[in-house]
Automatic annotation (TrEMBL):
Record-stated family: Belongs to the short-chain dehydrogenases/reductases (SDR) family.
Signal peptide start-end: none
InterPro entries (UniProt xref): NAD(P)-bd_dom_sf, Sc_DH/Rdtase_CS, SDR_fam
UniProtKB keywords: NADP, Oxidoreductase
The name this protein goes by in its record: Uncharacterized protein
UniProt xrefs under Pfam families: adh_short
Naturally occurring in which organism (per UniProt): Remersonia thermophila
Domain of life assignment: Eukaryota
Taxonomic lineage of the native organism: Eukaryota, Fungi, Dikarya, Ascomycota, Pezizomycotina
Length: 385
C-alpha cells in the first residue's frame, strides 16, 4: 500500500485543501518575497505599486504574516524536539502498535511492514489482514499490567526491545452518562487512557536509558469538544492528551532523555467499524477521514524521527479554541451536536464487558493463588498467556 501523494486527498476537495492552497500561495514567503522585490527593483513593478497602493500594502502585510508563521513553526518544531537531533536506523528499530489488528492501527502496520521495519502488534483481536515475516502479533489484554508485563518479556525474547511505541488502541461505547454501566466507563478509560501508562511503564525505561525512541499518543479532537453520548470517550481522550503533554515534560526535566520523541495525534471522525453510525454534520470543514489518511500521517511523522502534534483534518485546530470561546457559543455547539451519536452502532471490541471483567478477575485470582501455592512473590506472578 504506497503512500497517497495526489494533489487532492482521499477525502476530496475540502476545507483543508483550500487552506493548503492559501498557505502555499498567499502566506508563502517564497512566493511573496520575489513579488515584493519586483515592485522595488523593476520599473514595471514600481509602476504597479504606485497604481495599486492598497494591493501593495496588503502584499507586504501578507509577507510579514507569512514570515511570522514560518518562524513560529520553526521554533515550535525545535522546542518540541528539545533543540537536539537524533538519527533513526529503520533496519534496527522496532515499532510496537497497540490495537494494530485492524482499523487505523492495521493500516500503520502495513505501511511500516512494507518499508521492511519490524512491527509488533498488541491486540486482543486477531489480525484482520495477512501479515509478512516482519510483523509479530501478540494477543494481549493491555488493560492488565501483569499480562502486559508477561507479554513484554516474550516480545523482548522473540523480537527485541521496542524503540517506537504507538498507543493507538481505542474503544467507544456510545451511551449517555446515565445509561453507562460502571464497567462501561472503566473499560473506556482502561483502554483509552490507563493502558498508555502501563505500556509506557513497560517500554519507556529502555528508551530513556538509550536516550532514543518515540512514544505516539493517539487521542482525538473529542479531547477538545464533548458531545452527548460521548462523554466517557471524550473524557478518556482528554486524559490521554494530558498524558502526552506531561510525559513530554517529564522526559526533558525528570528523566534526562531529550532525544526520546513524543507525538500527539488529534484526529477527527474516521470511517472505521468502531464508529459505524456516527453522523458527520460538517462534511466540508471536518470531513470523514479514511483510516489510511490518518495512518499515513502518523507513519510519515514517525519516519521523520521528530516530535510533533498532528491534527487531522487541519481545521480541527479550531476545536482547541473552544474552551476560550464565550459560553453561549460553547453550550450551543455541544447541544447542536446531539445528533452525532443518535444512530451509532459501532463495532464493540469486547461484546460483553461484564463477562470480560468477570473472567479477568477470575484469572487474576487464580494466578495469585497459584503463585502463593508455589511460593512466588506477588510481583512475579505468572499470567496465563
Amino acid at each position: 500500500m504506497p503512500f497517497h501523494n495526489g494533489w487532492l486527498p482521499r477525502e476530496g476537495f475540502k476545507a483543508d485543501t483550500a487552506l493548503r492552497i492559501i498557505q502555499k500561495t498567499a502566506l508563502n514567503p517564497g512566493v511573496l518575497l520575489p513579488l515584493l522585490l519586483l515592485t522595488r527593483f523593476t520599473k514595471q513593478g514600481q509602476d504597479w505599486a504606485v497604481l495599486h497602493p492598497l494591493a501593495h500594502s496588503r502584499l507586504r502585510k501578507l509577507l510579514v504574516f507569512g514570515v511570522a508563521r514560518w518562524v513560529s513553526n520553526y521554533l515550535s518544531r525545535r522546542v518540541l524536539n528539545n533543540w537536539v537531533s537524533d538519527t533513526y536506523d529503520w533496519s534496527r528499530e522496532i515499532v510496537l502498535i497497540t490495537g494494530g489488528a485492524g482499523g487505523i492501527g492495521g493500516e500503520m502496520v502495513k505501511l511500516f511492514a512494507e518499508k521492511g521495519i519490524k512491527v509488533v502488534v498488541l491486540d486482543i483481536q486477531p489480525l484482520s489482514y495477512p501479515a509478512g515475516p516482519n510483523v509479530h502479533y501478540f494477543k494481549c489484554d493491555i488493560t492488565s499490567p501483569k499480562t502486559l508485563a508477561q507479554v513484554a518479556r516474550e516480545i523482548r525474547l522473540a523480537v527485541g526491545e521496542p524503540t517506537v511505541l504507538i498507543n493507538n488502541a481505542g474503544v467507544v461505547v456510545g451511551r449517555s452518562v446515565l445509561d453507562l454501566s460502571e464497567r462501561d466507563v472503566r473499560f473506556t478509560f482502561d483502554v483509552n487512557t490507563l493502558a498508555h501508562y502501563w505500556t509506557v511503564k513497560e517500554f519507556l525505561p529502555a528508551m530513556v536509558e538509550a536516550n532514543h525512541g518515540m512514544v505516539v499518543t493517539v487521542a482525538s479532537v473529542a479531547a477538545w469538544v464533548t458531545v452527548p453520548n460521548m462523554v466517557d470517550y471524550a473524557a478518556s481522550k482528554a486524559a490521554a492528551h494530558a498524558f502526552h503533554e506531561g510525559l513530554a515534560a517529564e522526559l526533558k526535566t525528570r528523566y534526562g532523555a531529550p532525544k526520546v520523541r513524543t507525538v500527539l495525534v488529534n484526529q477527527g471522525y474516521t470511517t472505521t467499524p468502531l464508529f459505524e453510525g456516527y453522523h458527520n454534520d460538517s462534511p466540508f470543514l471536518m470531513p470523514a477521514l479514511h483510516p489510511e489518511t490518518v495512518a499515513e500521517a502518523v507513519v510519515r511523522q514517525v519516519l521523520r524521527g521528530e516530535s510533533a502534534h498532528l491534527v487531522l483534518p487541519a481545521m480541527g485546530n479550531t476545536m482547541s479554541w473552544l474552551s476560550g470561546m464565550p459560553h453561549w457559543y460553547q453550550s450551543r455547539l455541544r447541544s447542536k451536536n446531539v445528533t452525532i451519536m443518535e444512530r451509532f452502532r459501532g463495532r464493540k471490541v469486547v461484546k460483553d464487558v461484564d463477562r470480560f471483567y468477570e473472567e479477568k478477575e477470575k484469572a487474576e485470582q487464580a494466578a495469585e493463588a497459584a503463585a502463593a501455592a508455589a511460593g512466588v512473590g506477588a510481583s512475579t506472578v505468572l499470567v496465563e498467556k
